[in-house]
Specification:
By secondary structure, the protein is mainly alpha-helical. It folds into 3 domains: 1-61 and 252-279, no CATH class; 69-175, no CATH class; 184-248, no CATH class. The protein contains 15 helices and no strands. It has helices at 21-34, 63-72, 76-93, 96-108, 126-136, 138-145, 155-175, 177-180, 186-189, 200-210, 213-218, 223-227, 230-235, 237-247, 254-266. The longest helix is centred in the middle third of the chain and has 21 residues, at 155-175. The radius of gyration is 25 Å and the shape is extended.
């Protein structure tokens, strides 16, 4: 086992019949059996929260997807602001000449980016990227659109922002309750500190671990790399089975969403018969 955690897209599969959670699990299980991968290697599972994915088999909601759902609850005022951003982006990106002129202006202004990003509701990761790029190029956008009017923050604007932040805080508390209430054993962060553990077996392994000077040297590289060592898994199986669940505490479907975006770019009208699964 390497001493770092890597994220990679494992496989894509076609669902022959329905798209229920059990069918998805069956496709995953068949792939694991085919590749001789034990299901016990699965630490956590992230889904987009669709009804078919919530139930007895798959029930963990992607943390980034939850952020997206929170972001959708914009106030009317801020929702209008978002549309102004999208309209400005579309005004530049929808015209080839404007796109080239804007890129030239960005180059003259020594901007790090020379192009704005589009946002679509289906590709929900695009909203944050679109807004981040818009903010990074804000001065150049104002110059290009020739709208350098003085912008001031009115008292009612402040009230709107405060109300929105309060609503966001409440929504975050509700959607991330499982993460906010998560209790991480202190010995996972620092197994060599003064720790009191009620579980006798865990306490015995912690005591033995505290006297292992060879492993203690590796702890200076951080607790994540420390727990990913092969010696830990073999010598201290009880500690490993507990610690590994917290090494990936925030499962996400980010790579899957990126994969869908890549496929969307590939499957144009001229290439809509490509079989992505077999490629």
């Amino acid at each position: 086992m390497n001493q770092e955690i890597y994220e990679e897209l494992l496989f894509a599969s076609t669902l022959i019949t329905d798209t229920k959670g059990e069918s998805i699990f069956r496709a995953l299980k068949d792939y694991f059996i085919e590749k001789a991968i034990t299901l016990s290697n699965i630490i956590s599972v992230a889904t987009d929260g669709a009804p078919a994915m919530v139930g007895r088999v798959l029930a963990i909601h992607c943390v980034i997807r939850r952020q997206h759902l929170v972001a959708k609850n914009l106030s009317v005022r801020l929702h209008e602001s978002l549309h102004l951003v999208i309209d400005a982006v579309n005004r530049i990106r929808s015209n080839a000449l404007n796109t080239r002129l804007f890129a030239q202006l960005c180059e003259e202004n020594n901007e790090h980016f020379h192009q704005l990003l589009l946002h679509t509701e289906v590709r929900w990761l695009s909203k944050g990227l679109c807004l981040s790029r818009f903010f990074a190029l804000f001065e150049t956008i104002l110059e290009f659109l020739d709208t350098k009017d003085k912008i001031s923050c009115q008292e009612d604007d402040v009230s709107t922002y405060v109300q929105h932040l309060n609503a966001l805080y409440s929504d975050f508390e509700s959607r991330f309750e499982d993460i906010l209430t998560m209790v991480i054993p202190p010995w996972i962060i620092n197994p060599y500190g003064d720790i009191e553990e009620t579980n006798v077996i865990v306490q015995e392994e912690l005591t033995e671990l505290s006297t292992n000077e060879e492993l203690k040297v590796q702890f200076k590289n951080g607790y994540q790399q420390f727990w990913l060592q092969n010696n830990i898994r073999v010598t201290y199986p009880v500690l490993w089975n507990i610690a590994r669940k917290f090494l990936i505490s925030f499962p996400s479907s980010y790579l899957v969403e990126r994969g869908f975006s890549a496929v969307t770019n590939l499957l144009t009208k001229k290439r809509n018969r490509l079989d992505i699964i077999s490629r």
